[in-house]
Amino acid sequence: MKNFFWESNDFDLFSIDGLEQRMTALQTLVQPKFEKLGRQFADRLSAHGSDEFFPHVAKHLRRTVNPPTDSWVAIAPSKRGYKALPHFQIGLWQTHLFIIIAVIYENPDKKGIAERLEKNINVLTSLPDSYIVSGDHMKPDAIHIVETGKEGIKKLLTRLQTVKKAEFLVGRHLSREEAINMSTDEFIAFAEETVDQLLPVYDIIIGKA
After folding, report:
1. Count of domains in the chain?
2. Is residue 1 predicted with pLDDT exceeding 70?
3. What SS3 string covers the chain?
4. Residue 199 domain flag
5. What is the mean pLDDT of the chain?
6. Which residue of 13, 101, 142, 167 has the smallest Cβ count within 10 Å?
7. Whole-angstrom Cα distance, residue 72 to residue 93?
8. Sequence-distant (≥ 6) Cβ neighbours of residue 197 within 8 angstroms
């Protein structure tokens, strides 16, 4: 019998009304899974050799009225926090799962990151066809790299340098249907493959490559 990592309820909880009720479901159903993934992938990323990584499960503590529409575990090379650093995220929207590298608006080195990525744009365009990019972590939508091409990526990178709130995300999405039909072993293998394929991008972002 197959052992499944994700279930429909993990995605459905984002339609529960009320902050308290949704947070209770999130804490019960999904956060233990995020904690497990965070520990596992912090170890995998630490073994890459650039830094020691630490997991940060989103707690959504600042919310007082609106319940979260997505949630995640961030994995970053700092115990204290992740928002100011390039970091990996594994997370859920109601419609899909995402595994990404995120450079979000709190990052103080967005200009340097954008310049390094533009100089090495082939590291992005050579990713498999299933990979996506986005300029806003608050929105579920993203565009496949194969569709937007070099010019689309350059526009996102220019915006990253010039717009204060601009962001850059790159990674892979998995529909909820695909996610809930994967066994635990299949999902972990998918996540490991994704992180491994993103590591050359991460090395450019941090100026290691």
Report:
1. 1
2. no
3. CCCECCCHHHHHHHHCCCHHHHHHHHHHHHHHHHHHHHHHHHHHHHHCCCCCCEEEECCCCCCCCCCCCEEEEEEECCCCCCCCCCEEEEEEECCEEEEEEEECCCCCCHHHHHHHHHHCCHHHHCCCCCEEEECCCCCCCCEEHHHHHHHHHHHHHHHHHHCCCCCEEEEEEEEHHHHHCCEHHHHHHHHHHHHHHHHHHHHHHCCCC
4. yes
5. 96
6. 101
7. 9
8. 127, 128, 131
Q: Is residue 2 in some structural domain?
A: no
Could you tell me the residue range of the domain that residue 47 belongs to? 8-205
> What band does 75 get if pLDDT is binned at 50, 70 and 90?
very high
* Residue 112 token pair: 């340097």
Identify the CATH number of the domain in which residue 168 sits.
Answer: 3.30.930.20
The model's pLDDT over 108-119, given as tens digits with 9 standing for 90+, comes to: 999 999 999 999
Q: Which residue in 164, 155, 82 sits closest to 117, CA to CA?
A: 155
Q: Is the pLDDT of residue 123 over 80?
A: yes
Residue 18 CA to residue 27 CA, distance in Å, equals: 14
